[in-house]
Each structure stands twice: as C-alpha cells, then as structure tokens.
Amino acid sequence: MKYYCIGIKGSGMAALACILKDLGNDVIGYDDDASYKYTMEGLNKRNIKIYSTNEHYIDKDTIVTYSKAFSPEHKEMKRCKEMGLKFIEYFELMGELSKEFYTIGVSGTHGKTTVSSLLHSVLKEKANYFIGDGEGWASKNNRFMIMESCEYNKHFLHYFPSLAIITNIDRDHTECYETMDDLTNAFGEFGNRAKTVICLGDDKRIRSINFKNKAIYYGFNENNDIYAKNIIKNEKGNTFDVYYNNEYLDTFFIPLFGDHMILNALGAIGALLEIGISKDLIKERLQTFENAKRRFKETVINDTIIIDDYAHHPTEIKATIESARQKYPSKKIVAVFMPNTYSRYRDYAEEFVKAFQKADYTFLTMVNSNREKKEDFNIDSDDIIKEINGEILYDDISILNKYKGSVFCFMSCASIYHIENEFINELKEK
After folding, report:
1. Host domain of residue 387
2. Helix (H, G, I), strand (E, B) or coil at 352
3. What is the rounded distance in angstroms from the CA atom of residue 27 to the CA atom of residue 48?
4. Residue 290 neighbours by CB distance under 10 Å
5. What is the C-alpha separation between 125 and 135, in angstroms, rounded?
C-alpha cells in the first residue's frame, strides 16, 4: 500500500508513518513546517521523504491520512481531493491497525505516554508500539501492539484493544466534552471495547464505571487488586513494595519521581502480569527505564538543570514541578510554560495559578494556538501572570539568565523547544 501522511511531523502522525513503513508500505509525508523537529529522527532513519511544497508527484493509488490540524481547505488537502485520492483520518487508520495485533490500548487524561513507554521498556522488540512522543515501530511477526490511545474527539473509540489501560480521568478537552459525565462515559466505552481493563482504582470517576468484562484495579489504596506500600522517595527515584491480591509480589525501583510515576508503574506492572510477563523481568527492566521524549528529559549545563516536559494541563504541570523538587531539593525551580489553547486557560485558570505557585518563579509565553482565536476567549497569559510570582516571556530569552543555577522546567505540548534550545545554546556560550 502507498500512504501520504499530511502533517507528518506531528507526534502521532510521525509514529504512524514509521509503523506503516515498517509493515512494508510505501510512505511519504507533507508538513508546512520545513524546519527540523525531534519527531523526524525516526522518519529520517526510514528514509521517508518529507515535502513542504505541493510540487511533488503523488501516485493515483495513494491513500491520504491526515490529522485535524489540517483543514479540508488546506492547499495540499484540496490538491489530493482534486486528484480523487482516498482519504482516511489518522485515528481511523490506527483503529484498523489495532485489529491486526493483541493491542494494549493505553488511555487516560495523564500518563499515557509514560505508561506506554514503560510497557515498551519491558517488552522491547516483542511488541510493536505507537507512542505519543513521535516514536513508532512495528514488525508483522509480533503478537503485541502497544497503542497510546487519545480521548480527544473520542478518537480512541475507533480502536480495538484486547487489553485496555485507563490511568485516570481528569477534566480536559472541554471543547470536545461538555460535562465530566460525557468524558467518563467515553472512557467507559473505551474500557468496554477490551476483554480486560487495567485501571486506577483510586479514581472515583473510574470506580463509577460499570465495566462489562474483567477489571483489575491498581493504586495506593489497599482495596485495589494491585497496590503500593512502603514507598521510599529520594534523589534517585522511587522504591516501593507491590502487593497483588493482598499478597506481597516484590519490591520495585523506578528512576522516576513523584507519586504519579508510581501509579504509572503500577498500571504497567498490572498489564504486563496480565499478559504473562514474569515479575522478575518486569522488575529488572523497570529499574533501568529511560523516559519517553519530552517527559522529564534533563540537560545539565554547569550548575543549571534544563528539564523538557510535555506537561500542558495543570495537573501535569504540578506533577512535573513536584518531581523536580524531589530530585533537586536544594535548588530553585523555575517554570517556563507555553500554552497552546485559550480554552484550557479559560476552563482551568484557577488550577493553572495553583500549579505555577509550586514553582519559585514562572515565565509564561503568550498562547501559541493553531486552532483557537484570542477574541473568542478573551484570556491570555497576562491574565494568569498577575496571580503568581512571574513574568511574561517575549522574544528576549536573556531574562532567564538571572536564574542561572536553578532547575528550569520547560513545559508545553507546543513548540517550546525552540526557546529551550536557544537558552541552552546561550548557556553553553558563557
């Protein structure tokens, strides 16, 4: 088959393109942005051609896959339509792929990418994987497929998981879900698409769902099937005892920080045990785990620590800052955040303020949104900054220098890495 991936540098589309190529398909891609992005690493390894103009040739039997970031009025979308090419949305194609393997669908408002990465770190080459950091890999010979499953616009309801994981349910994507009941019901539908669901039992919303098939609950509370006790936190990570069906399983260590990472590990452990992976192998591989791209990734320059993280929801921002505190208790924590939607600011203004108050100082850029207009929401970063200890970051990043020697948490699901890289280069020059 021949595929043309429009928006190929997006994290999801890049991973999908890699999988399609690995499975023996011809793949080319298009993106408006001609500059290098971290998602291109896997694409370049597979020699997938990427175009940023519409002057290239496309075979008549090519299937076009695309994301909602590209409207039907986009010039390349219109060209492909005029050619009479077949279109299939990215999440629909993912759904078709999920049917071909024993798919572990990893869902939840927070932690999807980390749990998917934890699973991959244990299963390694035995499992295909689609992870939201732009990573994807596949072999026709594998039984398992790890598939990060996003709830945005109910995309994950097009997937067919054999085993589902639900990490948590938190208020998000209010542009897609009018109420928390709507969001909870969507996760319930996703869980019920699987024969078994592994889910956070400490989450009241998850507990309210009536799963029709087997449900295994994990968490800190001892009423769960899998729970953690005797937790030890230090600057190296988290150590904890795992109990399964009220019996001691083993003591695990993860080089990750914060309670949320212990919960992510429990979800992965539960899923791995369910598919027959030995606890010894799980324990061995988790203790050397390296997190996914843009998940608490560290760069050290002299006495300054740069942390790159995908956090964009207040809950995630709070968790990232608290994780930095655990690992670097003697350093000041500076948050640098680029918001990508006005609606999230509008709906979580109070939560954002509380999250940024966990940092010693905060820099906010103005909203960088491709799909929303400021005039429709009447809110921006200057409305948030008034409530916290911080300031607006415009073009001059030199103002960050007054906090050299601190831990800088660069957080966003948008392209904050341009600012981050500029700051890193400036530190290296001095």
Report:
1. 297-429
2. helix
3. 6
4. 9
5. 14
Helix ranges, 174-218 (H): 180-192, 204-207
Residues 263, 353, single domain; the answer is no
- Give a yes or no: residue 292 inside a domain: no
State how far the Cα of 52 lies from the Cα of 6, in Å rounded to an integer. 10
Query: 165 pairs with which residues across the strands?
Result: 106, 198
Nearest by Cα to 165 from 257, 272, 241, 244: 272
The H or E element containing residue 419 is helix 417-429
Give Rg (Cα) of the chain.
Answer: 22
Global pTM reads: 0.80
360-392: per-residue pLDDT in tens?
A: 999 999 988 877 788 888 889 989 999 999 999
At residue 42, the pLDDT reads: 93
Task: Choose among 273, 389, 393: nearest CA to 338.
Answer: 393
Nearest to 310 by CA among 300, 322, 298, 320: 320
pLDDT in tens, 234-263: 988 999 999 999 999 999 999 998 899 999
